[in-house]
Design goal:
Among the domains are: about 45 residues, Helicase, Ruva Protein, domain 3; about 80 residues, 2-Layer Sandwich (Tetrahydropterin Synthase, Chain A). The protein has ten helices and eight strands. The strands form three sheets. The protein has a three-stranded antiparallel β-sheet with strand order 1-2-3. The chain has a three-stranded antiparallel β-sheet with strand order 4-5-8. It has a two-stranded antiparallel sheet with strand order 6-7. It is about 55% helix and about 25% strand. The protein is α+β, with helices and mostly antiparallel strands and about 260 residues long.
Length: about 260
């Protein structure tokens, strides 16, 4: 006979429903280890059945320890599950494991970790992007669990690195510097504004200057180093970094 104490012990160990625990114990003839194996097998089967369902929601988690940071996107189907404690705990556990054991080992271990939570929440869960960063001055910023930025500076401070990450999250630059703007984008912008300038009927040399100005302004709005810094619009991000003796070597944006 399966006792209430056995069911409670199994539920405490797995977090799955009382009914699932009782059924597993009955199938295992009261053997706790066998019941755990049964639940583990079923969770993998459930996860496999749900794996083709679209998982567009989720959470962004970024963690740092010393000179190493890890960013993780964990996807689920709905915002309801994205806010679920078991789901957010799983995302944090995956990030912590990546910090401790590395990205490759975490990607290998993730399916088993995810399967157990799929069984509890009833939605498809997929490990999205997972990346590691190393540097002396890393900045982290996460907004509402739905977007996050990692910045890596040479020189400067971690506070400055975080401020730059916050700026990127808010202003969403398409490029780091003017040198990063591809020729295709420049050509498309030229075609777009050339028609507008031509309609002004101004002299050709004036039109040329107006066109150059429009293109320059357009890309400055999209280029991180040329954007007015969100906390002090009197200086650009590039000038802020320069005055702080810092260089932005890389940044990465993560979003749901």
């Amino acid at each position: 006979m399966i006792t209430t104490e056995q069911v409670k012990e199994l539920r405490d160990a797995t977090g799955v429903s009382v009914m699932q625990c009782r059924k597993a114990l009955e199938e295992a003839g009261g053997d706790m280890q066998k019941a755990l194996m049964i639940l583990k097998k079923k969770s993998s089967e459930i996860a496999a059945k749900k794996s083709d369902r679209e998982a567009k929601d989720g959470v962004v988690v970024i963690k740092k320890e010393g000179t190493k940071a890890v960013a993780v996107i964990l996807n689920c189907e709905t915002d309801f599950v994205a806010k679920n404690e078991d789901f957010t705990s799983l995302a944090n556990t995956i990030a912590e494991k990546a910090l401790a054991d590395g990205v490759e080992a975490t990607q290998t271990a993730a399916p088993e970790m995810i399967s157990a939570i799929v069984q509890k929440v009833g939605e498809n869960i997929q490990l999205g992007d997972i990346r590691e960063f190393t540097g002396e001055t890393l900045g982290l910023y996460v907004h509402n669990g739905k977007s996050g930025v990692v910045t890596n500076l040479t020189g400067g401070t971690t506070d400055l690195a975080k401020d730059i990450a916050m700026h990127i999250a808010a202003m969403k630059p398409a490029y780091m510097s003017a040198n990063d703007v591809p020729e295709d984008a420049k050509r498309m912008a030229t075609e777009l504004f050339a028609k507008e300038v031509a309609e002004s009927e101004k002299p050709e040399d004036i039109q040329k200057k107006i066109l150059e100005g429009k293109i320059s302004s357009y890309f400055k709005e999209q280029t991180l180093l040329d954007q007015p810094f969100i906390k002090n619009p009197d200086v650009t991000v590039g000038k802020l970094l320069e005055s702080s003796g810092a260089t932005l070597t890389e940044y990465a944006v993560f979003s749901i």
